Amino acid sequence: MMRAALFLLLWPAVLQAGPRFQDVSADLPVAHVYDGGWEHFVGGGVAVFDCNGDALPEFLAAGGENPARLFVNRGGMAFVLGNGIPQLDGVTGAYPLDIDSDGLLDLAVLRVGPNLLLKGMGDCRFEDRTTEWGFDPGDRWSTAFSATWEPGQDWPTLAVGNYVDRSDPAGPFEACDANTLHRPDGTGYATPILLEPGFCALSILFSDRMLTGRADLRVSNDRHYYVRGGSEQMWRMEPLALMGPEEGWQPISIWGMGIASRDLNGDRLPEVVLTSMGDQLMLIAQPDGSYRGAPYDIGTYAQRPHVGDDGRPATGWHAEFADVDNDGRDDLFIAKGNVDQMPTNAMRDPNNLLMQGPDGRFTEASVEAGVATVERARGASLADFDGDGRLDLVVVNRRAPLELYRNVTSDTGNWLALEPRQAGPNGFAVGAFLEVETPGGVTHLREITVGGGHVGGQAGPQHFGLGPDTAAKVRVRWPDGGVSDWVGVEANRRLSLWRDGAGLDLR
């Protein structure tokens, strides 16, 4: 045990090379741009998911005033345009999930205008089932989404975050729209519940943040338009109510644009990063349900551009935790970019790739990695597009072409890609917790969620870097509270973990 612990301590020093990415954007079939006027200053999300069952993820990129496009993965980082999806205009973003629990991933598509629910038909074909499923699409400016399966329900509860009320003649300032909660009613959806007051949401996330078996809804809001009287919000689902200080909720006011959640310190409570203008806010979860700001020297605040001479505040959008070099520590990517021509903020605002060190602090590596571009980035995703065990990167830009990067980092650690599955409703086990324990005694806890980010997310295997470890133990805490036995697995494998009583059927 001592020798293994010593090796784990020394192993990071062996990795002399930092992360490296190869820009393969020129190989895409089209230069895709998220564009449009004021209503598309925000948005620009990307949904990542496997829609044809070949274990290689596709992605749907929002287009704003341009059509949204589905890029179908042909392997080796080669993509073609998918033609099995309806024409999608005015799209701000999308999220994949299996709404009807048929084993095929569907899409919740957010728009400036009526939203859509698209049913996955297999082979990357989709049909509009918005009306058939009884979903009220609204006619709002939708910019955030999350979903959860509430106890006893066969269909997911869907939450939609909305931005400025375009119909308010006194707007746009102090004219934030209400958010909507869509609860299932049999095989469809009941009349939506208004979540009021709304404060111009740009990211929302259902999360069982206290491991109570109950998901709360975090709402990150943009103070630019609510101006005063607003804050970040947390909704309790049962009974439905906004949380307050008596429940440990501490309202803060930021230009909230994106949410990333991950347990970073091993206490089984997920930390949160909230993107904003200026400071990108890291909050450390506390046992009583409250949060405290991370110390400044943690290295994630990223409040100004890290290259160039523009000292104005940065603007963060999508944030995502992921282990880019498979060293067993989650890193953090933040998409950056000016709203449009906002003079108070940096115009040339590079993305951040913040690598976590053994001491829990983060160090900027985007320049050496080759991803520090200064376009107006919005949505992004880290996913293994070529199936080699290293996470690649896609970035959607406003008024500039989408970027696709292949992870070519050398001497990476070992890894696992794990996807909990179960028969019946909620087959992709949204709300489950994955635990991975390494021989060195490190335990990773990962919640399966739908939502967060900036108007986009992904569905599929959860990626775990293992560092030097060649095996691990895994178990699943299922959404209904059942816990599987520990099962040993070898590293460098992609596995579906099917629920089998107290066991796991590895496929």
Provide the CATH superfamily of the largest domain.
Answer: YVTN repeat-like/Quinoprotein amine dehydrogenase
| Number of extended strands | 37
How many discrete domains? Answer: 2
Shape: globular
Give me the number of helical elements.
3
Question: What portion of the residues fall into strands of 2 or more residues?
Answer: 35-45%
Q: Helix share of residues? A: under 10%
CATH level 1 name of the largest domain? Mainly Beta
Q: And the CATH topology of the largest domain?
A: Methylamine Dehydrogenase, Chain H
Based on the coordinates given, report the CATH architecture of the largest domain. 7 Propeller
Summarize the structure.
This protein has three helices and 37 strands.
What does this protein look like?
This protein has two domains: 387 residues, YVTN repeat-like/Quinoprotein amine dehydrogenase (Methylamine Dehydrogenase, Chain H), CATH 2.130.10; 93 residues, Immunoglobulin-like (Sandwich). Helices cover 4% and strands 39% of the residues. It is built from three helices and 37 strands. The radius of gyration is 21 Å and the shape is globular. The two termini are 31 Å apart. The N terminus is likely disordered.
What secondary-structure arrangement, pairings included, does this model have?
Layout: H1 2-14, E1 21-23, E2 46-49, E3 58-61, E4 69-75, E5 78-81, E6 91-97, E7 106-113, E8 116-122, E9 125-128, E10 140-148, E11 157-162, E12 179-182, E13 193-195, E14 201-207, E15 216-221, H2 223-226, E16 233-237, E17 240-242, E18 258-262, E19 271-275, E20 281-285, E21 291-293, E22 316-322, E23 331-336, E24 352-356, E25 362-364, H3 366-369, E26 376-383, E27 392-398, E28 403-407, E29 414-421, E30 433-437, E31 443-447, E32 450-451, E33 462-467, E34 471-477, E35 487-490, E36 493-500, E37 503-506
Parallel strand pairs: 29-36
Antiparallel strand pairs: 1-28, 2-3, 3-4, 4-5, 6-7, 7-8, 7-10, 8-9, 10-11, 10-32, 11-12, 12-13, 14-15, 15-16, 16-17, 18-19, 19-20, 20-21, 22-23, 23-24, 24-25, 26-27, 27-28, 29-33, 30-31, 30-34, 34-35, 36-37
